[in-house]
Amino acid sequence: MIRIILADDEALALFSLQKQLEKLNGGVIVGAYPNGAEAVEAVLREKPEAVFLDIDMPEMSGLEAAEIIMSRLPETEIIFVTAYEKYAIKAFELAAIDYLLKPVSTQRLAKTLARLSQARAAKTGLDQPAVRLSTGTKEQITIRCFQTLEVDTGESGPVHWRTNKAQELFAYFVHLRDQPVRKDALLELFWPDIDPKKGYTQLYTTIYQIRKTASAIHPGIRIVSGDKGYRLELNEVDVDVLIWEEGLQTAPPLSEHTLARHLQLLELYRGDYLEDCGYWWAENERERLRMLWYRHAMRVAAFLETQDNAAEAFQLYFLIQRRFPFTEEVYWALIKLFTSIGDRVSVERQYDMLSQMLFDEFGTKPARTLEQWYRERVV
């Protein structure tokens, strides 16, 4: 039998729900509580399979209670009970296994119990389980942040987030890595223009959605609740940005024998950090990583020149130029390389491009020393 805990501050509603569950023989009720705090304490102690939570309770709402329960016991099934209109339910129905509208009908409650039984059967292997990764899987999960946010599970198809806000908040947690972040800071960042009470409701709902999605990706991905905030744990899960930067830091000096490794590091940078997502809070990190790639790419291109490998040097310089069209240094590198092979037409083209870029973007022209160098060798 499924072990159940109930929580509702309305005594009549709590009594009615308890009697209906007993009538349907839907499980063993191990506790019924008039507020969220007592319910959470009981859930952590009794570890039931399912919890019925009224959303609108004083002091600790059902959403806040669900958030705490999911952080400690992620396998617990949550059923929200609410008197809210349907516009509010849409925020919850995808996150919980089910929701019930007050007054709860016996027929509707029977459907909820059927869903609970199916979920329990799937977890115990009595039914066909959904595809799910475990901590013992050989598949390596990688969160990719270059260009866009992706979770590479080794399976076909992208991860589907419940809402855009859930995806962005998850990306923010990944951005902070292991750093804790306060709830009030999250409200100010993600819900700055709404009433704090509604903001907390949105926050708890979004955290709940992230936990449900993350647990389906890999059980090692956990959002841990702390004192007034959260922290993301990525057990056995890689992040491409961390792998790439560590690769840069540990890479051996450039040489003929290590060139392949350095070229591979350049290729691993698929695009700027979360560029397609447009998250403004990622701008500083995006620029920092861009400059790391730029400096490494310029060193590798210069090394290719010393190896008399002009073709690959040109290819890399052109890639740098596309990504950093307003950086004077790369234009001069190309001008000098074209000069070394006697390609006067390309030298003049690059110089003209540089002059136009400086004028359009900065209202200046090439430095006098560089202009003199160009005229002495080309004009």
TrEMBL record:
Pfam family, any one: Response_reg
PROSITE patterns: RESPONSE_REGULATORY
Location of 4-aspartylphosphate modifications: 54
Keywords (A to Z) from UniProt: DNA-binding, Phosphoprotein, Transcription, Transcription regulation, Two-component regulatory system
Domain Response regulatory: 3-117
SMART domains the UniProt entry points to: BTAD (SM01043), REC (SM00448), Trans_reg_C (SM00862)
UniProt record similarity statement: Belongs to the AfsR/DnrI/RedD regulatory family.
Name listed for the protein in its UniProt record: Response regulator
